[in-house]
Design goal:
Elements lengths: L7 H13 L4 H11 L14 H26 L3 E12 H7 L5 E8 L4 E6 L1 H11 L15 H12 L2 H8 L6 E8 L13 E11 L2 E10 H4 L8 H10 L4 H12 L6 E3 L7 H5 L17 E5 L2 E11 L2 E9 L9
Antiparallel strand pairs: 1-5, 2-3, 2-4, 3-6, 5-6, 7-8, 8-9, 9-10
Pfam families: FliM, FliMN_C
Family: Belongs to the FliM family.
Subcellular location: Bacterial flagellum basal body; Cell membrane
Length: about 325
């Protein structure tokens, strides 16, 4: 808790009260001790630090960008997905917060233990179905028991997105996600105990003209083995210790040697009027500013590299390199 800053008038009033005996110093000490006691709800145990929550948020920001690209390609319409919030709450509270009938995908995260839940708001789910079936992406804003065809479509759509989930978490753990169950009633799900702490990542989702939420519920038991890696210190340490192996340097060098490079040789420049340009015809001669006694310049990407002289080689126009053009070091002021 941040210390409260008193104004000068409040300080003067406090000193006056102490000197006059209206306020007891021992009473102030007791009040200060009482402030250190705060209420703690064991049903809402905070199992994740703020640093770990920020790391989970960064992972899912990357995941939301990957999902945006994936759904845009699959649905062929405007899609935008972004992280709205990342909170840790009891599992029971998460179940109560979602609609009674919704679309639920349950994924395993091998080699991590436990499973995670993807809850797709009905408004978004039906927009996806309508778009895949050839519609304009209009939402019906209702969920009944989905038909077998509709369930299969939704299952296939999210199964094909597992590569994005795998890529998003690759910086922390190499996972092999598998879609295990598809459900529409959250009351049938009992992944963990009601008081178990879960991280709920809420994604703002727009598909065409329909908007809604995609919620990702990750129980603490899933993330527990990799908790030490969900910290900025671990990520920075990993990046610092990451060094290229000799075989990587060799592979990069070999690939660079086979890279094609466009080279240009400028024969010279000249200026003419627009009228002369419009009246050019076969046989006309243009006078260039380049002397035949001076070397030409060989350049790549507009950067002068060598001085060369023109000639022929095996019945083809060619140039011979005379010298390298040295670059002048910039003056540090």
């Amino acid at each position: 808790m941040a210390d409260e800053v008193l104004s000068q008038s409040e300080i003067d009033a406090l000193l006056s009260a102490l000197s006059s005996g209206e306020m007891d110093a021992n009473q102030l000490k007791q009040e200060e001790q009482d402030r250190k006691v705060r209420v703690y709800d064991f049903k809402r145990a905070l199992r994740f630090s703020k640093d770990q929550i920020r790391s989970i948020s960064r992972i899912n920001e990357n995941y939301s960008r990957l999902l945006t690209t994936y759904f845009s390609a699959q649905l062929r319409t405007y899609v935008h997905i972004s992280v709205a919030s990342v909170d840790q709450i009891p599992y029971e509270e998460f179940i109560r917060s979602i609609p009674a009938m919704t679309v639920l995908n349950i994924f395993s995260m091998s080699p991590l233990k436990g499973r995670i839940i993807f809850e797709i708001n009905p408004n978004i789910a039906y927009a996806m179905l309508d778009r895949i079936l050839g519609g304009r992406g209009t939402s019906l804003n209702k969920i009944d028991n989905l038909t077998e065809i509709e369930s299969t479509i939704m299952t296939n759509l999210f199964e094909r997105s597992l590569d994005n989930l795998r890529e998003a978490w690759s910086s922390v753990e190499d996972i092999d996600p598998v879609l295990e169950e598809f459900e529409v009633n959250p009351q049938f799900l009992q992944l963990v105990s009601p008081n178990e702490t879960v991280v709920v990542v809420s994604l703002n989702t727009t598909i065409g003209e329909s908007t809604g939420m995609i919620n990702i519920c990750i129980p603490h038991v899933v993330l527990e083995p990799i908790m030490p890696r969900l910290s900025v210190h671990y990520w920075m340490q990993t990046e610092t210790q990451k060094e290229r192996q000799p075989e990587e340097y060799k592979s990069l060098s070999e690939n660079l040697k086979t890279t094609k490079l466009d080279l240009n040789v400028l024969l010279g420049k000249t200026k003419i009027t627009v009228n002369d340009f419009l009246n050019l015809s076969k046989g006309d001669v243009l006078h260039l500013d380049q002397s035949i006694h001076e070397p030409l310049v060989l350049a790549s990407a507009d950067e002068a590299l060598f001085k060369v002289q023109p000639g022929h080689r095996k019945n083809k126009v060619a140039v011979q390199i005379l010298e390298e053009i040295k670059k002048e070091a910039p003056n540090d002021e």
